[in-house]
């Protein structure tokens, strides 16, 4: 059980590490256009991301899938950029949940590959990596939910206290993330 808590803690700390803010940006633009009343939809989105993330993380850790790390590091900000752009160019009423969940699941696959080298180095030569892998992924989900909670809380404060329209707030955050993720993608383009 002690191993569970070690890997659980590593998982949520890895997500909340400000040096690796690309994951924080992704979760931010994924849920910035929602309100607290949409908690079920947000939970499904984050879970879809975690399922994709966990799948490719497991496949990579078990050496079933091997990828070019340079391309994955480039694709991660591209997924953030695409998600932010979808926030800018769709209306709240025009959301297609199937498209959104599918997109989030696929982007989770890409992000999971980005974590695979990190987790593989953590696991080292452990005989049984299933339990640490599960613990780490549960920690990742927990960290994501902390980000979601903070984004929803900040959004509620801005919308209710400062009387900013929810759509304008989402547009502001998404626009900022478009700029940041575009620069990240340019910086990480594999040559």
From TrEMBL:
The chain crosses the membrane at residues 20-36, 43-65, 71-89, 98-118, 138-162, 169-186. Keywords: Membrane, Transmembrane, Transmembrane helix. It comes from the Bacteria. The keyword Membrane applies. This is HupE/UreJ family protein. It comes from Sphingobacterium alkalisoli.
């Amino acid at each position: 059980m002690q191993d569970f808590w070690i890997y659980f803690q590593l998982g949520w700390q890895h997500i909340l590490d400000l040096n690796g803010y690309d994951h924080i940006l992704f979760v931010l633009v994924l849920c910035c256009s929602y309100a607290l009343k949409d908690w079920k939809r947000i939970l499904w989105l984050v879970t879809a991301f975690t399922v994709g993330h966990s799948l490719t993380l497991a496949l990579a850790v078990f050496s079933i899938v091997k990828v070019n790390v340079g391309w994955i590091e480039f694709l991660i900000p591209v997924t953030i950029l695409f998600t932010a752009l979808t926030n800018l160019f769709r209306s709240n009423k025009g959301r297609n949940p199937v498209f959104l969940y599918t997109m989030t699941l696929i982007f989770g696959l890409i992000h999971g590959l980005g974590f695979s080298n990190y987790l593989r180095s953590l696991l080292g030569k452990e005989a049984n990596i299933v339990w640490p892998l599960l613990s780490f992924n549960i920690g990742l989900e927990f960290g994501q939910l902390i980000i979601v909670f903070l984004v929803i809380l900040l959004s509620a404060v801005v919308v209710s206290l400062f009387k900013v329209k929810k759509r304008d707030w989402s547009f502001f955050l998404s626009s900022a993330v478009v700029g940041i993720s575009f620069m990240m993608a340019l910086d990480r383009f594999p040559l």
